[in-house]
Amino acid sequence: MMTFYVKGLQVMVESDFGTTLLVPLWTLLAFVGLGWLCAKRLAIDPQPIATLLVYIIAPLTFFRSLTLGGPTLDYLLLTLGLFVTASVIGLMTQRLAHHWFAPQEAALLAFSAGTGNTGYFGLPLAMVLLPPEGVTIYLFCLLGITLYEFTIGFYISARGRFSVRQSLTRIARLPLIYAFLLALLVSTLNIEIPTVVLDGMDVFPATYTLLGMMIIGMTLGRVTIRELDARFISACIAARFLVWPLVSLLAVLGLQPLGISDHLKTTLLLLGVVPMAANVVVVAMELEIRPEKGAVAVLVTTLAAPIVVPLYLQGLTLLVS
Description:
By secondary structure, the protein is mainly α. The chain has helices at residues 17-42, 46-69, 73-97, 103-113, 122-129, 132-149, 152-158, 164-172, 175-188, 195-200, 203-220, 230-255, 262-273, 279-287, 291-320; strands at residues 3-7, 10-14. Strands 1-2 form a two-stranded antiparallel sheet. Helix 1 packs antiparallel against helix 15 and helix 2 (46-69) packs across helix 6 (132-149). The longest helix has 30 residues, at 291-320. The radius of gyration is 19 Å and the shape is globular.
């Protein structure tokens, strides 16, 4: 067992890795198992939970994080950079996927290619690997990917089933966009959020992670053998564990001459190695575009995470040191 962190340009390997990274990884997988148990034994319908995540919990979670973090120009440039990166990957995948997959599957694959489980899964890991200022950097990078999910990504997904007008209408109804704009307004005008309000919102980040991972298990509880599509799963794995690690590596190497900080380096590498986004299932369920297929692919990459994430982080850090 080993541990990994960045100090200067050195990669340190020690004996306490299991307690610093593997424990949160397996905890997140336990949440997936809990969701599966709820679906099987309690027959809980994940659809209302998906709606709750999209329209209530995610917007409030990010509004709280943004107002606490205090958006600056540098932070917003990180948000913009990750939004553009995710959008380019998603749109390029869309152009390729429609040649080999049915419309709904191609839309789901394109959406998933542009994102990863940077919130429900990656954020708890970032809080282990990074100090508070590093977590703030991670949150603004995460925001860029999340904005992709609920704008360009949501549009790509919706086009697998709906018209252009219907897809744009659904995007306009998403509150996360307005939560982001409201947080920017609050910070720009130096409006102080009452402490009692912020304290009351403390529950949302943990709820966001717990329900986001449980919904994968709940959806898996309804999966049949027909949903085991090896071709679709392989394409999802390639996008998540081949394309994104390469993109994050190139981003770090490209920024090194400009003096990239250790915190940003770790953030970019972590964003590149997390498993598939649980929001693939959440959005697919909200739009009714094959959520079971998405859940199987998410589960495969999530189960691989305790092995893949540590190895990738260590290997990529060695390459950029």
